[in-house]
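**Archive record**
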Amino acid sequence: MISSAQNPLVKKLKKLRHPKARREQNLCLLEGTNLLEAACETNSPIAVVCCTVAWRSRYVKLWEELSQRAERVEIVAPEVLKAIATTVNPDGIIAAIPRQRIRATVSQKLTLGVFLERLQDPGNLGTIVRTAVAAGAEGLWLSADSVEADNPKTLRASTGAWFRLPIEVSEDFLQTLREYRDRGLQIVATTPRSPLTYWDVDWQQPSLILLGNEGSGLSPEAIALSDRQVSIPLLAGVESLNVSVAAALLLYEAQRQRRKRSD
């Protein structure tokens, strides 16, 4: 059992809280049982697993699978696990997985996707990923100046959905958007004062939802590449909605229209 926070492995894992260390080690942190279950279910590679004795006793089958799948497994004292974790009350297991900048290739038969420009909050990103998977989106793109896709808070907020959605980081966000538009996908941008509401759009055609920064929204250049600009009706006194809420409304309107067509 590793009982000291000064252990070299512990020090290495603690550094993964920071983007620079994640890039240098090419690893990112997974915290919590649900994320480890999702990693196994999706056959994701796992570099290191650390858990407490109590966790191992409670999740015997998962521990056996992780022991076979991971390159290294360690039992650690509860205080050591807490020293590694970014959460206040970790549930007993933490792992490190290879960091992949572009984790999967989006299907060529894309019918619904999400483009995020300059998104900054990792919790918002994780929630959008979770909602996108639930609503049937097939891919998500981030501009390179957005929050990192494998931020620990993003992974936690996704509750495992992170492993189920192709996510790409675009070094040239506008060019990537332009390429998908040229392939015939409808680009729907969210803007605060558009007279067209999100339910006025025909979501039955292949579409990309374009959302921007939490404070400043989309850049003029991104909006100029869109085919439709839509707003979300708000009562007086409410300036805007959280970007993850906005994403959910548009994603589920697309799902509603498509389900209606199939019925």
About this structure: The chain has eleven helices and ten strands.
